[in-house]
Inverse folding.
């Protein structure tokens, strides 16, 4: 199905199943430990051996010599895979660093060997016996030190430099100016499930049970890396223990499991250890961001400029931290600039809302600072500079843009009118209390997505698509979509996901999964409705699917009757036309945060959080709300504690475990409220929905930062905002 | 939903695997009985009661309780999120106390009673805490969920049995099931998806119902 | 993890004798730190002596009016003990501020005393660390050191002792009781239990080979407000940046020890006379001679302000 004109009335609009707060259909499995994640598969036929990954002990240089003698002789060892014996390997289209390093080492903990043994304990012990002699080379590990060597680097279709009007002149002439530099650190996805795979060969066919957000990319890149035809690779990933972008691409454990299985001549299972994950895999790159805003005294932005520097391995991409600034606020004169310097740290790549998440951490502090300079309420300042069109191309409207309503509704609900705008005035016992706001913004990306739907004689529907559920609730919203389309209740739908034998979907990334994958199911169901009508001899144009029946004129037949002579199967793919070019499609939020800052120690604790979101039709308010609060929690982590600390001499992330890399725990997160504005966006898709999975993190961190400023009067521009950055400027504790 | 992926197959296999393990050779009562296999691994015979069922195992001394249950008994509900006691995904209830099963050796649990998520309830026969997690959407990816649920069950018991916490205003009690108490006591179970707010609601509801 | 044999001895002395006799033997109790380190081959024992079944898990009153805490009493049980809660609140509070509910259910009194540093370089076997591999150098001194020691460290090592319980025990003047291979017993004041690194940072404590901790005794309760204040970035399940264990009387006099700042719980008794004058007077003396790094200099100010908060709380 081609989607190139705004959606009209369609069966989803009935909203009998879609749009209802619905318990997850996979819930009974997840809550009982019976949902099989990658490392959990226990097919007795497999009898897998265990692989253990050896990571490089240097960040850059060469392996001079590798001594495998004692490792090979160790108990239970079946095989050892290294670059020296793995044969020639290709590289996945989306991989930057090689997944099996050696002799060249590109980053710390780059995999250099896989030790395969009968048991996990044996593999781990033998891995420690692999002796490697390195020639360590000097590398660049400090973004601030090399930032000025950064080169213009475009990200996808976005150019490295954008310019509208005369930014320099307008900024210079602006009566009120802000010129400030912000930094965000390297951050880790730190999903709860470590990267894990079980690989099994049958002749020249390979099956990999893995944990991956993008099944088709995985199949393609496994095939490319192993130099084999893609149709010989099957990827199975029905349950994924979190990804946040860290499982968009094939990682080392999948390739090494396949190589290990080939070498050991039996299936092999491999999980990365937690301490390996931080340097072996990918992370969100650090940024240095300079923001300049010029405005008139009454608060109209006349110039807005955003420059961002980040680092990556030579073929890597920059962090696109400026992208929201091209779209979020009005202003006739504007510029952005993206620069990337070469660093020899581990590979930087997409993490939840790449670009916008760190970009808004900076931009939305800048907006707060500017409002303060202007003496205008920060919500009012944002409202004043709202735009309903792409500020770079005024002829291009937003499909929907309800940011102002998000901010107003949030202000009302959160009690913004009780905020004391002068910082440092509110005290509650040992706490200095402050309230902050930030705008949230994340683009709605659309990409083609396929599905297959089968109706059987019992009236059961089975949906198959290679779409993944990384915690997003895909199982449920896909089930809801099929149920709505076919006029049945949700318990009549079986959803099967995450298998490369199924039609190729959008996969999970860029908060496009929910909208696109359900649109693919919509398309397949449209075809199925036709096929069913035909079987029943009904006119598909006026057939009504309702309550398990199909009605046409005054004839009615049970849906199941269409499959009496055999299953009825339909498959289709939604493809998106140029509506995304004609209209800017984005999602919006108003984030509100109250913090307490300990008057003595400067410990920061979040006390209240609210997000008001405008994100099109909400397919399942229960799981969508969960996505948003999860993003907000990650935003708290980003604001207050998350930082991969770099050893700038040896080029690695030092705090490479979950004790050292702190993410928010229960005690850090208060009750969170989410309000979805009642919105449908017919320009986005036939579902009239948009993505919401990343909107929660976009702006949440800056709202925390702004609340800290309101509580203390201290402006910290370097994340994370830890107590040591406040302590010297805290008022006397007494 | 009836069956995600090949789950039905997987569960059948699980049962088949269990009977094989149960048929393993008898063991001498003491964990001192150790043999060294042909390749030098130190093997110990031992027994555990897992979810009410006595299980005999012959294990490498290095095998953690988590790996014994997951890799040998094929009960894969408890998860290995970090293997270093830093995340809580492996939480099991052993002799009535919740612990990180990754940081304890199986051989140290001779004859102990181990409760895993599979022992709390099954699809169609859920423990109230499992049902409350579904109702309140107390999870996203589900990987930390078995640990969160085991911990949640234990936390209510800990509050009721008079164990104080870091946030208890008075060390000498009484201890209430407040949001703050739940959050502090649950902080050893990380949920990177960030479903904390919902998890607290689920635990609160179960605690209230039991009161 | 290297392969090891495993045994359960029948008495503390037998346990001590076994560990003294066997090269590379170690005691295991809760295992929460030892197994963590064994998985990374930072600890590589080839024989484990499981001391869990030795009956060292009771809290008893002493004839002197104090408490004798068995070495194997779990952190949860010690924190919840009615006598500890009532008379040694600072100890309960310190225990409850540490780790997580799951870890406290396994971790023992003796094991907690023996907890090794959380210095990230100690935890990474590809990096130089004098504590892990004597003579290899210290990566932390010019590396990432925000968590590490500001005082008591040496040119060889700036690791901190990471625990909370021992900081409270230090302010309570606890005594560590041990048994050795010959059945001989010894009493070590907790003040002398943890070593400063000097040029031998690999040795954390003054225990001798094979010596087994059997108990920790607390003297008669000290009257006053018992406060343990732990400061950290996240609200729970994190090591202290700075912690303060204090017992403060109504007249403002009292005792105070600091955690998270040194290779051992840090207490300077001579500074305690200044407590009525306020925090700064005390911390100036307690931290005299401190050598912070660029990353951890904030701890000096933080220690002062945290003590200030503790003194305010005691007055309230």
């Amino acid at each position: 199905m081609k989607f190139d004109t705004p959606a009209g009335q369609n069966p989803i609009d009935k909203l009998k199943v879609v749009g209802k707060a619905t318990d997850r259909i996979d819930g009974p499995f997840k809550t009982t430990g019976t949902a099989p994640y990658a490392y959990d598969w226990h097919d007795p036929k497999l009898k897998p051996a265990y692989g253990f990954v050896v990571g490089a002990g240097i960040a850059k240089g060469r392996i001079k010599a590798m001594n495998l003698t004692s490792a090979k002789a160790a108990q239970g060892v079946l095989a050892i895979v290294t670059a020296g014996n793995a044969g020639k390997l290709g590289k996945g289209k989306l991989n930057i660093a090689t997944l099996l390093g050696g002799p060249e080492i590109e980053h710390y903990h780059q995999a250099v060997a896989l030790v395969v043994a009968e048991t996990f304990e044996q593999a781990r012990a033998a891995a420690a016996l692999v002796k490697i002699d390195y020639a360590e080379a000097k590398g660049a590990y400090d973004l601030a030190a090399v930032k000025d060597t950064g080169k213009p680097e475009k990200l996808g279709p976005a150019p490295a430099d954008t310019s509208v009007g005369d930014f320099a002149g307008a900024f210079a002439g602006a009566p009120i100016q802000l010129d400030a530099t912000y930094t965000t650190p390297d951050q880790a996805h730190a999903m709860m499930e470590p990267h894990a795979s079980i690989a099994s060969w049958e002749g020249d066919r390979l099956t990999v049970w893995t944990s991956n957000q993008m099944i088709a990319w995985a199949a393609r890149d496994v095939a490319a890396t192993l130099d084999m035809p893609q149709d010989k690779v099957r990827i199975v990933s029905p349950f994924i223990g979190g990804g946040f972008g860290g499982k968009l691409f094939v990682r080392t454990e999948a390739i090494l499991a396949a190589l290990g299985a080939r070498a050991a001549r039996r299936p092999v299972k491999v999980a990365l250890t937690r301490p390996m994950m931080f340097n072996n895999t990918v992370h969100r790159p650090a940024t240095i961001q300079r923001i300049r805003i010029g405005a008139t005294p009454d608060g109209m932005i006349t110039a807005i400029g955003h420059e961002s520097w980040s680092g990556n391995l030579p073929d890597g991409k920059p962090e696109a931290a400026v992208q929201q600034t091209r779209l979020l606020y009005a202003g006739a004169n504007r510029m952005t600039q993206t620069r990337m310097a070469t660093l020899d740290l581990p590979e930087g790549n997409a993490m939840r809302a790449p670009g916008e998440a760190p970009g808004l951490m900076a931009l939305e502090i800048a907006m707060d600072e500017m409002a303060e300079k202007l003496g205008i309420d920060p919500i009012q300042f944002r409202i004043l500079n709202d735009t309903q069109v792409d500020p770079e191309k005024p002829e291009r409207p937003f499909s929907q843009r309800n940011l102002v309503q998000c901010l107003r509704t949030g202000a009302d609900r959160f009690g913004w009118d009780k905020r004391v705008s002068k910082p440092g005035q509110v005290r509650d016992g040992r706490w200095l209390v402050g309230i902050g706001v930030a705008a949230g913004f994340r683009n709605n990306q659309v990409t083609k997505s396929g599905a297959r739907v089968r109706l059987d004689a019992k009236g059961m529907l089975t949906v198959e698509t290679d779409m993944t559920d990384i915690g997003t609730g895909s199982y449920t919203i896909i089930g809801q979509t099929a149920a709505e389309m076919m006029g049945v209740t949700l318990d009549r739908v079986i959803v099967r996901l995450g298998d490369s034998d199924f039609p190729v979907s959008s996969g999970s990334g860029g908060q496009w999964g929910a909208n696109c994958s359900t649109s693919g199911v919509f398309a397949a169901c449209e075809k199925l409705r036709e096929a069913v009508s035909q079987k029943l001899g009904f006119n598909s144009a006026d057939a009504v699917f309702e309550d398990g029946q199909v009605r046409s004129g005054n004839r009615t037949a049970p849906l199941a009757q269409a499959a009496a002579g055999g299953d009825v199967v339909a498959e289709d793919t939604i493809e998106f036309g140029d509506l995304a070019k004609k209209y800017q499609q984005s999602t919006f939020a108003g984030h509100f945060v109250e913090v307490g800052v300990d008057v003595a120690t400067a410990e920061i604790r979040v006390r209240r959080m609210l997000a008001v979101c405008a994100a099109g039709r909400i397919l399942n308010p229960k799981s969508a709300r969960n996505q948003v609060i999860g993003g907000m929690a990650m935003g708290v982590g980003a604001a207050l504690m998350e930082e991969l600390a770099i050893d700038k001499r040896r080029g690695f992330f030092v705090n490479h475990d979950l004790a050292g890399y702190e993410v928010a725990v229960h005690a850090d997160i208060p009750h969170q409220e989410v309000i979805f504005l009642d919105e449908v966006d017919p320009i986005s898709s036939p579902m009239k929905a948009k993505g919401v999975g990343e909107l929660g993190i976009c702006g949440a961190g800056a709202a925390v930062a702004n609340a800290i400023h309101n509580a203390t009067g201290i402006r910290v521009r370097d994340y994370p905002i830890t107590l040591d950055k406040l302590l010297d400027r805290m008022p006397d504790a007494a | 939903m009836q069956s995600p992926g090949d789950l039905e197959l997987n569960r059948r296999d699980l049962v088949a695997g269990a009977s094989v393990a149960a048929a393993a050779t008898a063991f001498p009562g003491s964990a001192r009985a150790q043999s060294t296999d042909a390749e030098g691994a130190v093997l110990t015979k031992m027994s555990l009661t897992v979810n009410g069922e006595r299980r005999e195992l012959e294990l490498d001394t290095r095998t953690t309780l988590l790996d014994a249950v997951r890799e040998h008994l094929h009960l894969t509900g408890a998860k290995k999120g970090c293997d270093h006691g830093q995340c809580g995904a492996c939480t099991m209830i052993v002799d009535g106390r919740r612990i990180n099963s990754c940081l304890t050796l199986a051989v140290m649990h001779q004859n102990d009673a181990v409760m895993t998520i599979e022992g709390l309830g099954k699809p169609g026969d859920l423990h109230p805490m499992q049902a409350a997690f579904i109702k309140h959407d107390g999870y996203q990816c589900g990987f930390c969920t078995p640990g969160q649920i085991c911990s949640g069950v234990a936390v209510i018991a800990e509050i009721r049995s008079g164990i104080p916490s870091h946030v208890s205003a008075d060390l000498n009690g009484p201890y209430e099931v407040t949001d703050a108490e739940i959050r502090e006591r649950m902080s050893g179970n990380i949920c990177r998806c960030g479903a904390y707010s919902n998890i607290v609601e689920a635990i609160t509801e179960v605690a209230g119902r039991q009161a | 993890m290297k392969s090891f044999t495993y045994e359960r001895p029948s008495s503390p002395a037998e346990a001590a004798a076994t560990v003294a006799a066997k090269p590379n033997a170690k005691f295991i109790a809760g295992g929460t730190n030892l197994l963590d380190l064994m998985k990374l081959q930072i600890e590589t024992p080839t024989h484990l002596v499981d001391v869990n079944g030795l009956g060292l898990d009771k809290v008893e009153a002493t004839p002197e009016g104090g408490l004798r805490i068995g070495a194997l009493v779990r952190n949860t049980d010690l924190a919840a003990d009615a006598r500890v809660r009532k008379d040694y609140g600072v100890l309960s509070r310190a225990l409850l501020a540490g780790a997580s509910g799951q870890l406290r259910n396994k971790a023992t009194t003796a094991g907690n005393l023996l907890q090794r540093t959380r210095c990230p370089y100690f935890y990474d076997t590809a990096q130089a660390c004098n504590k892990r591999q004597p003579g290899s150098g210290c990566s932390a001194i010019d590396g990432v050191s925000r968590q590490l020691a500001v005082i008591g460290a040496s040119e060889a090592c700036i690791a901190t002792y990471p625990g909370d319980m021992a900081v409270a025990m230090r302010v309570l003047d606890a005594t560590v009781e041990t048994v050795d291979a010959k059945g001989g017993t010894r009493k070590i004041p907790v003040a002398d239990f943890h070593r400063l690194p000097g040029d031998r940072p690999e040795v954390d404590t003054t225990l001798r080979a094979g010596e087994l901790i059997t108990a920790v005794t607390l003297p008669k309760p000290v009257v006053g407000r018992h406060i343990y204040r732990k400061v950290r970035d996240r609200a729970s399940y994190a090591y202290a940046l700075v912690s303060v264990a204090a017992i403060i009387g109504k007249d403002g006099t009292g005792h105070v020890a600091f955690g998270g700042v040194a290779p051992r719980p840090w207490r300077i008794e001579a500074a305690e006379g200044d407590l009525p004058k306020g925090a700064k007077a005390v911390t100036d003396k307690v931290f005299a001679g401190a050598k912070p790094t660029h990353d951890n200099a904030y701890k000096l100010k933080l220690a002062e302000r945290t003590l200030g908060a503790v003194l305010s709380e005691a007055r309230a």
Observations:
- Chain A touches chain C at residues 57-58, 75, 121, 124-125, 128, 275, 430, 598, 600-603, 605, 640-641, 645-647, 649-650, 654-657, 659-660, 662, 664-668, 720, 722-724, 727-728, 730, 733-734 (CB under 8 Å).
